[in-house]
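Dear colleague,

Following up on Tuesday's group meeting, I ran the structure prediction for the two-component complex that the binding team flagged. I've pasted the input sequences exactly as they went in, so you can double-check that nothing got truncated or mislabelled along the way. The structure tokens for the whole assembly follow below. Feel free to forward this to whoever is handling the docking comparison.

Inputs:
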Amino acid sequence: MNLSSDPMIFALTLGKILLIAVPLIICVAMYVWWERKVIGWMHVRMGPNKIGPWGLLQAFADVTKLLIKEIIVPTNSNRFLYFTAPLLAVIPALAVWAIVPFDDGVVLSNANAGVLFLLAMTSLGVYGIILAGWASNSRYALLGAMRSAAQMISYEICMGMALVCVLILAGSLNFTAIVNAQAGGKGLFDWFWLPLFPVFLVYYISGVAETNRLPFDVAEGESEIVAGYHVEYSGSAFALFFLAEYANMILAAFLVSILFLGGWLSPFQGWHLGFLSEPSWIWLFLKFFFFATAVVWLRATFPRYRYDQIMRLGWKVFIPISIVWIFVAGIFRYFNVVTIGH
Amino acid sequence: MPMNHAVFQMVCFVAFAVVAVGAALAVVSVKNTVHGVLALVLTFFSAACLWILAEAEFLGLALVVVYVGAVMVLFLFVVMMLDIDLEPMREGFIKYLPIGIAAALIMLVEMLGIIGVRTFNVPAGPDPAGSSNIEWLGTALFTHFLLPFEIAALILTVGLVAAVVLALRVRTFSKHQDAAAQSATHAAGRLRMVKMAAVTAPAPAPAAKEPQP
């Protein structure tokens, strides 16, 4: 079998894409279940517990319900854009995963411009939201879309600047190289969260704000504008928005683990603790699990921010912090304060 | 039959180019302005794909980040919010068509000229195997072209500040929240605890019946 022929590569790549996308979609379903369960426990109630063992199949039941529901198109809505918008939301959310590494070398595309690709794809996600709001022919949807777009664009700036800090230290736009730059003998103190601590916090909080999650979910603030940009969507079209939002949340948790917490590197690296010091994808998934759960934790803990407070936090607090820390990171790099790699 | 790699690349190039040209035509010909803006987005995106195909991945991705991700979003917003009557805007289409065609022809001739000029055929920069052109671009920008790079950054910053100054209107009568004052409040300023003697209800007489609700 000649693996180098083009159809073979094509089939192989398609298989790899499915190998990422299908577990991702299942992960979204499990994340919804986990979110409802954790929030249930925090509210001192049971959470879903009827369908399947521990309610595990609840999310699948919900998806099935959504898929067999009728899709209602609002009158005088723009039919073409109404159905294009969910696709525009979900395509970038899935496409980003092409450059996310799961272990050393386990990545669909080990692109040199990985971080740029990430920025490009996440900046496309906003189209789905704006068009959904506009095409729905609804005041609530339009208001939600406006809020959401303003919020996403604002927080993209400080996320980008936080990324620049990481790039300065790692000296590469490649995710695998960024993780390898955090290797060393000092365990978890070799990771970038330590020299970049303020930016690490900025990045994580911006990630929560970027995905319109609580406490930054004014875009779909139920008590103010019903459900925001997707208020007019039902059935499978709504399910696509849901999928995109949760895929983005999972991505944010993965990225913060990769960029600031050493990805698949062990927190005990270089401490000679046997298998505990070895890098493994299990570490990456543990870190991801922690940050994904922390999003739910935030949701159950904090009340919703007011809209002007969100904008103030993004523009007047996070952006100045990130700008200052770009200089600090440059100084770290120039004077070799941070050891990069082994 | 295994497809030749170069043929495959050629097919991709033609496909992206056709989409780009088609979308560019749609920008000026569709009725709905929002559709027009979206067609422009598609044009930019196809152009970015073409650049990536030409191994200029930094330029391609930067085009997506800057134009598609930021500029066109703003554009879309403005077009959505405008309450415009489309009919009068379309009236001049035939009238301005000759001017448009003339401009397009001149541009075509200019571009053909660039392709023909041999002096532009400078050898590409050092492209050692394994090194990305992003790395090369970054090194070049921060060593040989540092001054132009910083001047460009300065101009952009001035433009940013100028835009804010132009758009900022200080309205003296508008109410706004002072976030610092809001954060500085504490419970003692808002709430006064009053100590009161407990009042106990007199014990009801044993004979009296409780009124039933």
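The CA atoms of residues 211 and 249 of chain A lie 6 Å apart.

Cheers,
M.
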